[in-house]
Amino acid sequence: MTSKTFVRTAGLLAGLALTLSLSFPSTHFAAQQGAAAPGQQAGPPGGRGAIDPRVQQRTYKFTDTNEDLPYALFVSSKVSKDKKNPLIVSLHGLGGSQNTMMTRNALQFAEEGGYIYVGPMGYNSSGWFGTPSTMAGAGGFGARGGPGGAGRGAGPGAAVPGAAGPGTAGPGGPGPGAGRGAGGGARGGSTVLGTPNATSQMSEKDVMNVLDIMRKEFNVDENRIYIMGHSMGGAGAMYLGVKYASIWAGIGAMAPATAPAGINPNNYPLDPAKGVPFVIVQGDQDTLVPVAGARLWIDKMKELNITHQYVEVPGGDHGSVLTTGMADIFGFFAKHSKTANR
Fold first, then answer.
1. How far apart are the C-alpha atoms of 88 and 102, rounded to whole Å?
2. Neighbours of 170 (CB within 10 A)
3. Counting Cβ atoms within 10 Å, is residue 52 exposed (0-12), middle (13-18) or buried (19+)?
């Protein structure tokens, strides 16, 4: 077992520009972070956010609902059909889209590391990737008509902060399928803890479908398949990481919103993933996903003797770790494979 805890200075990094508008599109959270209120178009500050042309905008037929669901794909120039290639599945935060995790530094690390790097939509912008979310009804995240299009009552083109609508270039991006009624929000809302919810189940299935598509299309190294995510996506990465532990060579989470996701070390045991390394990056000034939650998971990993790395960023907030944490996540994955984990 190896475990590491790092504390580093956040500094004046470009990641500070990525506010929580990428993750929690409610009036309360947007006001906290100075983001646009629901119903307003919101893209990254400073006009950043245009999608890199190397990122492919794709769709596939989701047979459960007979819909074309979008996903974003970046393939390193080092990927070849003649060799086994590592794969990362990357999950966005609440209100985001398939393009949210296609950040400039993520693409740089994916290119250098020779990765297939894919961003599923997760069925909609608030599907929670299968986790039993407690966000329903909180700040308008109910399953019917939440603000910003989080619920079924949202009309076409309703805006979610951080998810681009027509003519914008926010994290949702202008690519085919991006946004889809504000990041797909018109498909249904979040889930309620302990209550089966079709949207959550379809969110999970979408991720696993996209993974299956990648495995069929590319020569994927089955010893080097990873899952990662930020905020809601961080919770999703931990949830799916444990549920499908046999698939992954590593699990990464930045500011994982596991409390809103309804999971904690007591009600969602890590035991099935005891052989899978974890890396968590968390800002100690995160007012939306408090640092105490990440520390609980790390304490349980220590107790179970799980290989892990914990990076706690002094001064880091919820949005900043999406940028500052990429180096830690990719660096950790580069050190771990199923063969190395044994």
1. 12
2. 32
3. middle
User: Is residue 169 classed as helix, strand or coil in its secondary structure?
Assistant: coil
What are the CB-based long-range contacts (under 8 Å, 24+) for 63-68? 64/202, 64/205, 65/187, 65/202, 67/187, 68/177
Q: Which region holds residue 214: left if phi is over 0, alpha if psi is between -120 and 50, else beta? A: alpha
Taking a C-beta distance cutoff of 8 angstroms, is the pair 185, 92 a contact?
Answer: no
Q: CB–CB of 66/92 below 8 Å?
A: no
Per-residue pLDDT of the chain (342 residues; tens, 9 = 90+): 555 555 443 332 333 233 333 333 332 333 233 332 222 222 333 334 689 999 999 999 999 999 999 999 999 999 999 999 999 999 999 999 999 999 999 999 999 999 999 999 999 999 999 998 765 433 323 222 222 223 322 222 222 222 222 222 233 332 333 333 333 444 555 444 445 578 889 999 999 999 999 999 999 999 999 999 999 999 999 999 999 999 999 999 999 999 888 899 999 999 999 999 999 999 999 999 999 999 999 999 999 999 999 999 999 999 999 999 999 999 999 999 998 766
Domain boundaries, the chain: 3-341
- 120 has which bridge partners? 71
Q: Are 18 and 128 in contact (CB under 8 A)?
A: no
Identity (one letter) of the amino acid at 10?
A: A
Which architecture, in CATH terms, is 3-341? 3-Layer(aba) Sandwich (3.40)
Kindly report the pTM of this predicted structure: 0.76
Neighbours of 27 (CB within 10 A): 15
Q: Would you say 231 and 290 are in contact if contact means Cβ atoms under 8 Å apart?
A: no
Tokens representing 231 are 């905020």
